[in-house]
From TrEMBL:
Residues 142-267 form the GntR C-terminal domain. The keyword DNA-binding applies. The keyword Cytoplasm does not apply. Keywords: DNA-binding, Transcription, Transcription regulation. It comes from the Bacteria. GO terms for molecular function: DNA binding; DNA-binding transcription factor activity. This is GntR family transcriptional regulator. InterPro entries: GntR_C, TF_FadR/GntR_C, Tscrpt_reg_HTH_GntR, WH-like_DNA-bd_sf, WH_DNA-bd_sf. Pfam families: FCD, GntR.
Length: 293
């Protein structure tokens, strides 16, 4: 559509206009705009929406990730609605079947996946409940503070042994991000690379309890990544710090590495929770504007 309209860099992308022309709701349009932003083809400005960063006719669509998994698309649609608060804290399957016009089997697959990811849980008897963690900014801060206690402590375990092969792979992944993958990979892929690195660092401690704790945290914080738009330029510094952290560990400076990691988590945690608060405020303002129309 943007190409057909001969849209140019700086032109606004209007959800309502695209949704009306394509005959769909705003939700998939919003996800499409977010993907363009992830790919560096659009930028989101506070209280204004998305704007193209390149002429539409100059975009090579053959290089865009256009393959769509219908199940994954439905799953992400439900995730988006949960995180925006469009699904009540307690709900019944019949409500969502009507909302999305899908058969029960398809819905149960998504709910089962969300339950495995600790996003929702089945209530005794009937109904489902959304994990309160998802909408609790204080819990998000506490999550990072928990990691600040666990991950540096893992580095100081007496049985800590560096997995040289795994460390080399992690270093390569971080360098590839710096070489351009930061602006190519999806949010979920970026999250997975970061989560795997932190899990690796803890796994080398040999402490099964630490490892289980960090895996649980990675599972929960996945949805913080879903909820927040990725600030890709900021990730450049994070990748550099990840490589510096690997350097410290491999050189045997584990106490220095523990201090470095604690500070890294503190800074990143504050950045993400502050950004989430700004995004939530912007979302509420957009809802108020829509309500007045």
């Amino acid at each position: 559509m943007a190409r057909a309209r001969s849209m140019r860099a700086g032109d606004p992308l209007r959800e309502e206009s695209f949704a009306k022309e394509l005959g769909v709701s705003r939700s998939p349009i919003r996800r499409g705009f977010a993907l363009l932003a992830e790919l560096g083809l659009a930028v989101k400005e506070p209280n204004r929406g998305y704007f193209l960063t390149a002429d539409a006719r100059g975009i090579d669509s053959g290089k865009l990730p256009l393959e769509v998994d219908p199940f994954e698309d439905f799953y992400l649609r439900v995730v988006d609605d949960v995180l925006r608060g469009d699904i009540p804290t307690t709900f019944f399957e019949a409500e969502l079947m009507r909302k999305y016009a899908v058969p029960r089997g398809q819905l149960l697959k998504v709910l089962s996946r969300l339950a495995n990811e600790a996003m929702v849980e089945r209530k005794p008897g009937q109904g489902w409940e959304i994990n309160s963690f998802l909408h609790d900014s204080k819990a998000h801060i506490q999550s990072y503070r928990f990691r600040m206690a666990i991950e540096p402590a893992a580095l100081l375990e007496p049985g800590y042994v560096v997995d040289k092969v795994a460390f080399a792979k992690a270093r390569t992944a971080q360098q590839q991000l710096l070489d351009g993958d930061i602006f190519k990979l999806s949010r979920s892929q970026l999250f997975q690379i970061g989560a795997q690195l932190h899990e690796l660092i803890v796994r080398c401690s040999g402490n099964a309890f630490f490892l289980e704790a960090i895996r649980r945290q990675n599972q929960l914080r996945r949805f913080m990544a879903y909820k927040a738009n990725v600030d890709r330029p900021r990730l450049i510094n994070q990748c550099k710090e990840h490589i510096q952290l690997l350097d410290l560990i491999e050189s045997g400076q584990r106490e220095a590495a523990a201090d470095f990691l604690r500070n890294h988590l503190d800074v990143v945690g504050r950045q993400k929770t502050e950004k989430e608060a700004r995004d939530e405020l912007e979302h509420q303002r957009s809802l108020e504007v829509s309500a007045r129309r």
